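Hi W.,

Here's what went into the run:
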Amino acid sequence: MKFGTKAIHAGVDPDSATGAIMTPIYQTSTFVQDGVGNHKGYKYSRTQNPTRHVLEKSLAALENGKYGACFASGIAAIDAVLKMLNPGDEVISTNDLYGGSYRLFRTIFEKYGIKFNFIDMRNESLVREAVNDRTKLIWAETPTNPMINVVDIKAMSTIAKNVNALLCVDNTFATPYLQNPLELGADIVMHSVTKYLGGHSDVVMGALITSNDQIASEIYRIQNSSGAITSPMDSFLVLRGIKTLHLRMQRHCENGEKVARFLRSHPRIERVFWPGFEDHPNHDIACKQMRGFGGMISFSLKENDKVRALEILKKVKLFALAESLGGVESLIGHPATMTHATIPKKDREECGIVDSLIRLSVGVEDVRDLLADLDQSL
Ligand SMILES: *Cc1c(COP(=O)(O)O)cnc(C)c1O
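Here's what came out:
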């Protein structure tokens, strides 16, 4: 099945009880059993719920994986992966990581004796040097947030396999429409479903996908034991969102390219970060592992000044000033004071998150209106 057909049909069958073409919202906590141990596959909605189950199958199909598991947020999904580790284990992670992942690693899991090493994953040899026999997980994010760096998933997978560590890829920015990490050797794919998969800025959710039986049973055990599950209503909303994922992503990519090129030609702008540019440092890797370049763009100003950056954020009319990304509407944000404020300034600037850096999530509006809005605000 091709991607656009899978987005609409995969994992989703008409409801067996009624024939409803849309998966019903099974808003129930429990399921009546005919006799002890004699049930229809569902016992209690923390363990599994029919609406969530269909969504998990749909997400697994989109990533060409065998198993999907949905969580109350992207962070809850990451939390579940980290709970597979033991005290003394080490994790190698990218240094321009999503701020919330960084906070989870440093302020929650470090306390339990897990050690984190944040390095520039664009440089394969740095990762090779950093792994050792205590390394149990390589946590990659690509493209990264907010510097839109690209990490070579295949290379990370080779390094992980050499030391028997798991490779988990946060595929939130690319979505399965643009990139399938499992096919490039990742063991687990993670999504903040909140973003492009949901696509309509109305749900907070996370997901993990894997093809490995043993990893899947660990994930389901943690999902049920820790209990950070998603609701039937939210599962329904995401099932609805996924039906247009391919259409939305196509437009996000088209609009993204036009906005990136416009910004690059603007006299006030210093640099534009978008993997579709031939001179993007990892353009060749992006071409190898992605089917398009997405709608996430960051840029810095020639006057590297926070006040000037904040003025632009204030002047935009159509771009909404907000955290998050991946919805149909265009958003604008200032990583240094918003999404990445928890990262110390020195560490932040080392990986390029300067005071004038502005991040755009280019939506699916008419691009002429988006360009006009950026033009007037600049
Ligand atoms: C938003 C985001 C997360 C966290 O997901 P939530 O749904 O907000 O918990 C993780 N990784 C990336 C890349 C994100 O953009």
